[in-house]
């Protein structure tokens, strides 16, 4: 099972932890998304879906005979007004909104990278956003693109009522690899330029 999945047409989740727990949680949230849409005739907000997921997790921490869900999640998506949102839910059932975040093994390293390098300018375009995501993963993911999963979600203005307002795609490994190679090339060039400027190395420009 992939670590990234759609919850509704406009919301996706990335998870870290027990895959079996994630599957149960994802299925329950998907049912709620459909139920909400049938009742309200509009898709649920990203915050509503994140809160619903967090409530399920919290209920399992308070129930006798049931263990907590062993999974952390990043819930991402667009509301109908075109605003993007990112929420994190943890096994205890709390949830928080972020501009960018990471979960799972080595998440601290990725989070520190994002804190230093995330800017509104860096994520103005799809290419820039993917580039930032790949850079944040390169120092903690072995074998480069082979072990990376990247999904891209973009907003599109509906042409008629009820039309899906989101484009969603999973990047192929060769697409991710092209970003990895370009970033490696840029880093090599930056290192060479640094050595030329550094008199301690003895390299003349």
Automatic annotation (TrEMBL):
Pfam families to which the protein is assigned, alphabetical: Proteasome
Residue ranges, annotated region (Disordered): 186-205
GO terms for cellular component: proteasome core complex, alpha-subunit complex
Biased composition (Basic and acidic residues): 186-199
InterPro entries: Ntn_hydrolases_N (IPR029055), Proteasome_alpha (IPR050115), Proteasome_alpha-type (IPR023332), Proteasome_sua/b (IPR001353)
Domain of life: Eukaryota
Protein keywords: Proteasome
Similarity comment: family membership: Belongs to the peptidase T1A family.
Name of the protein described by the UniProt record: Psma8p
Organism per entry: Cichlidogyrus casuarinus
């Amino acid at each position: 099972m992939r670590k990234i999945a759609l919850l509704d047409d406009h919301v996706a989740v990335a998870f870290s932890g027990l895959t079996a727990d994630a599957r149960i949680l994802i299925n329950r949230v998907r049912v709620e998304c459909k139920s909400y849409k049938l009742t309200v005739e509009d898709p649920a907000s990203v915050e509503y879906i994140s809160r619903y997921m967090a409530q399920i997790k919290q209920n399992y921490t308070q129930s006798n005979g049931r263990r907590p869900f062993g999974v952390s999640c990043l819930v991402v998506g667009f509301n109908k007004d075109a605003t993007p949102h990112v929420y994190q839910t943890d096994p205890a059932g709390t949830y928080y909104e972020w501009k960018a975040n990471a979960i799972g093994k080595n998440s601290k390293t990725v989070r520190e990278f994002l804190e230093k390098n995330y800017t509104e300018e860096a994520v103005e375009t799809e290419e820039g956003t993917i580039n930032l995501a790949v850079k944040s993963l390169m120092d903690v993911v072995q074998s480069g693109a082979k072990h990376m999963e990247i999904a891209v979600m973009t907003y599109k203005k509906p042409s008629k009522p009820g039309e899906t307002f989101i484009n969603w795609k999973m990047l192929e490994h060769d697409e991710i690899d092209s970003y990895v190679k370009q970033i490696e090339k840029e880093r090599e060039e930056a290192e060479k330029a640094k050595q030329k400027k550094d008199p301690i190395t003895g390299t003349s420009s």
